[in-house]
Design goal:
The protein has a 7-stranded mixed beta sheet with strand order 3-4-2-5-1-6-7, with helices on both faces. The chain has 13 helices and 7 strands. The protein folds into 2 domains: 34 residues; 264 residues, P-loop containing nucleotide triphosphate hydrolases (Rossmann fold, 3-Layer(aba) Sandwich). It has 299 residues and is α/β, with parallel strands linked by helices. The structure holds adenosine-5'-diphosphate and magnesium ion. Adenosine-5'-diphosphate binds next to helix 2 and helix 11.
Length: 299
């Protein structure tokens, strides 16, 4: 009798120890998740999607050169190519027809990010291939379909300071997955005649996602691209966009620069192709502005 009482007591004591242990581990995990480098602890990457459903506004150019600029600034960077055209992959020197797993395997075949991510001289890359176009349709019947990219990136987020996602020129499932995975969005807007067209559709999609799927989603900034200070049109469009997004437009503006257009055909970011060009200088300034804004936010 005495023996079984003793057994029960020790069993309860063990249970109590186990609960305390789990509680301390949970507290520790929460602390690590929220803390920064200052304590020498884990920091989760800032995940930034670059989105605008309009094509040709400079999304890919921004992703490739911003990621490379952050890498040069000694930040740990992952560039995620979510566009089946694979232009970001090409911009980082990876041919979209090359062997190896891609974003399609991550999204549809449950490949782990470690199997897909490749090291490049400009930072890590999660490449895309044309097969990713099929994922747009295949995702429709998948459970938890909005959060597949988010869940995959969370498993590697402690290895990076910034994760930059290049979105396709549409508001389909791949863009929605990107916006659900992101903490914030950069919206590149070209300073051309149709610049404002479709911007309200993007802001509506973003606020719908913020309300329902990702309450954390914020605008990192609106980036004026292909700006030509010699034309009245560029100046007027820039003013209009600043009115449309008060206090959200980055102070750096990306000029129309032929070296930026040439760099992808060499499979290199602009800093590697022509580091003295205006394009390289402006993307370095953009990286600095983003790092600065995020360090202020962290204070
Ligand atoms: N600032 C710029 N100056 C000159 N050409 C640019 C600039 N930004 C992008 N381009 C070119 O414009 C085209 C579209 O840009 P891209 O980044 O692919 O847009 P998106 O990804 O939004 O479709 C590409 O040929 C690219 O090289
Ligand atoms: Mg693109």
């Amino acid at each position: 009798m005495q023996c079984s009482m003793w057994n029960i007591a020790s069993f309860m004591l063990l249970g109590l120890f186990r609960t305390c242990y789990d509680f301390i581990v949970a507290l520790w995990n929460i602390k690590c998740y929220n803390s920064d480098y200052s304590g020498g602890e884990v920091i989760m990457a800032k995940i930034i999607a670059v989105a605008n459903q309009k094509g040709g506004v400079g999304k890919t150019t921004t992703c490739v050169n911003l990621a490379a600029a952050l890498h040069i600034s000694k930040k740990r960077v992952l560039l995620v190519d979510m566009d089946p055209q694979g232009h970001s992959s090409i911009g980082f020197g990876v041919n979209k027809h090359s062997e190896g797993k891609t974003a399609y395997d991550l999204i549809i075949n449950s490949a782990s990010p470690n199997e897909v991510i490749r090291k490049t001289p400009y930072g890590d890359l999660l490449p895309a291939s044309t097969s990713l176009a099929a994922a747009e349709v295949e995702l429709v019947s998948v459970n938890n379909r909005h959060y597949i990219l988010r869940d995959a990136l969370l498993s590697v987020a402690d290895r990076y300071d910034y994760i930059i996602i290049d979105c396709p020129p549409s508001l389909g499932m791949l863009t929605i997955n990107s916006l659900c995975a992101a903490n914030s969005v950069i919206v590149p807007v070209d300073c051309g005649f149709y610049a404002l067209e479709g911007l309200s559709a993007l802001t509506t999609t973003m606020s719908t996602i913020k309300k329902g799927l990702n309450p954390e989603l914020d605008i990192e900034g609106v980036l004026l691209t292909m700006f030509d200070s010699r034309t009245n049109l560029s100046v007027q469009i820039a003013q209009e966009i600043k009115r449309f997004f008060p206090k959200k437009v980055f102070s750096v503006t990306i000029p129309r620069n032929v070296r930026l257009a040439e760099a992808p055909s060499h499979g290199k970011p602009i800093m590697e192709y022509d580091k003295h060009s205006r394009g390289a200088e402006c993307y370095m300034r953009l990286a600095a502005e983003i790092c600065d804004n995020n360090s202020k936010e962290a204070l």
